[in-house]
Amino acid sequence: MTSSHNPPEWNGIKVFRADGSLPLDDETDRYQDEANAMSVDDVITLDLDLARAAGVVVDRTLTDPYIDAIEKIVDVDAVRGSELQVVVDPMYGTSQLTLGTILGDMRVRAEFIHAQHNPLFGGIAPAPDLQRLSALIEMIRSGGGRYALGMATDGDSDRIGIVDETGEYITTNDLLLLLYWYLHEVRGEKGGVVRNLATTHLLDRLAAHFGEESREVKVGFKHVTAGMEEIDAVLGGESSGGLTIRGWILGKDGIFACALVVEMLARTGKRISELREMIYAITGRLYTLEAGVPSTPEMRIAVPRRLEAEPLTHVGPYPVVSVSHLDGTKILLENDNWALLRFSGTEPVLRMFVEADSPEKAEELLDWLKGFVTAGV
After folding, report:
1. Which of 18, 302, 360, 373 has its C-alpha lying 20 to 30 A from 190's C-alpha?
2. Is the pLDDT of residue 377 over 70?
3. Same domain, 292 and 369
4. Of 182, 365, 342, which is closest to residue 270 (Cα–Cα)?
5. Domain of residue 371, CATH code
């Protein structure tokens, strides 16, 4: 059971393999079927002290081995002497001790906010997105240029949020671009990139520029890491804040990601804003938007049925190049523009994602998706 952003009454349990990866669908389906086949009488409640005495529950302190493992991959020595100063928001979650230790080993001056553990997360959902990082952003903007970076992790520290030296929130799409460029060009780690289908196509453009393979997979980080293994990718990530690299655990890790971003700034000697402009000069710009609406079981049937009954030739005035049903319905337009309708696998929401050449076109595509969905309600 984890300090997830999902409601506690769902009693979510995350199952990991021994290598840190998540089981794929055929495995989780078996676990689910086995659990659902049990009756209440099959469930045994065991006092925690008895479970420890019987060896059913084993306590281990993993902080030091975990930090040591990160510091074998992240170049701690390269950061020392950089005199970087950062602000970190663990969002009342689990990263303060480990990330604080790593930053201390790097001799990075780090100021923490919302650092104490709090199972209610200060009354705010612990998701490191723009709407919930106002305190972090304000600290950087009022810091008189002292801070090179703001970093945040979610409740269980597997996702990351980044704020640049000006106080601008950096989307994970942009962060993935920066890290892929850094790993490939500065660290010299050749290889492709894997993203889920709701993540920016600029990664594909950058991979093509490098002469590397890019791969699109279904939503769910287990599909990202499976794709990474298939093509020996150097980076895998998703727009919702999760990423990992080749050589690290096969799962998203916000603490590791924060340490890698700090290394990137130290080794390049550049700020996030400078790196972004440099990458955009290679890839061009695309703009993403997303939205969600509450879904019903009826919608899960009606929306796909309408999409099949009305083959799409245009989204507004824009011609459709192709349609993918890999996961939901993704409508591919010209010049790497696209629109996606996908029902969430974890909550009753229909998610809508778009990416376009301009913010105005992105708004136009998102409005079209909203109109399409509501027209059938």
Report:
1. 18
2. no
3. yes
4. 182
5. 3.30.310.50
